[in-house]
Amino acid sequence: MNRAQIEKISKALADETRLRIFEAISRSGQMNCGEIVSMRGVTPATVSHHLKILSEARLISCRREGQFVYSEALPETVEEFTRALGQIAKRKKTRSR
User: Fold this and answer.
1) What secondary structure letter does DSSP report for 52?
2) How many angstroms separate the CA atoms of 75 and 13, rounded?
3) Which of 19, 38, 73, 80 is packed most tightly, with the most Cβ within 10 A?
């Protein structure tokens, strides 16, 4: 995973509402937009905006079935992100003498 993707995922999950949406989708396996809107304090426009950002970060995939759009978490992206952060944390800084 490259640095740009790490930053995109970090920014996507840094927003409290997006994190709540991502957690809800992850817990349920999949959710349609109506189910996400029914969460407290989330309007349809807000849901659309946040789903777009989560999708662009490859944290979720969205698919249309008739009039409904279903979102599903992509655990492989989270696993790759976790590995990438682990590699960053393990890097040792070299010091000039």
Assistant:
1) H
2) 14
3) 73
